[in-house]
Amino acid sequence: RWHLRYSVQMKGLRHSGLVALLVALLVALSGCVSSGGPAAPGPEEPPPIDEVTFVHGLTQVWPRLHLNELMAVNGSTVVDPTGRSSDWIELHNPGEEAVDLLGWALSDDLEDPAKHELDSMEIPPGGQLLLWADDDPALGPDHLRFSLDGLGETLGLYAPDGTTIDLLGFGRQASDIVLGRFPDGTGDWDL
Q: In 86-118, which positions are buried (b, 16+ CB within 10 angstroms) versus exposed (e)?
């Protein structure tokens, strides 16, 4: 989704019907507007206005996705399709629409947020997706280019434009223990 943002800056001219009409026209045509502009004048005559400037731009609004669970030391609890017990990360989509992960990224290095750019995979509405943090992306799109450090690190989820969506810093992890949010996607992190 995209939102049109605008602001109106007025200097020196007296308010006129034409200025009000231009602002109303901009609002009506945009359809998806966040506004910023001067405060409404008090009962006194407004200050004179001699210039009207419209400032606008598009802002991307990303779906809500969350880092939801992880296991940084997977000894034998969950096995991937190849039969290996690899570290894993679960993403959660609390939204009402499916989200395609094409272009999204995960990283365990804040200096390299695009360490692993995800391929086209879909998380259904209210659903989860398990990704294998095994540093073996040749095994498929759900296998990441890094593994988790059982001694602790920071994990980040990034939108296709590089916007940070979710971050988690975690300490030393015990073998076969899940670190997760309860309830899904919104709760506190707990073992």
A: bbbbbbbbbbeeebebeebbbbbeeeebebbbb
* Rounded Cα gap, residues 38 and 47, in angstroms: 11
pTM: 0.70
Q: Are 72 and 86 in contact (CB under 8 A)?
A: no
- Angle at CA of residue 159, ends 176 and 127, nearest 5°: 50
State pLDDT tens for residues 82-126: 899 999 999 999 999 999 999 999 999 999 999 999 999 999 999
pLDDT < 50 positions in the chain: 1-28, 30-42, 48-54
Within 8 A by CB and 6+ apart from 44, the residues are none
**Tokens 């947020």 label which residue?**
113
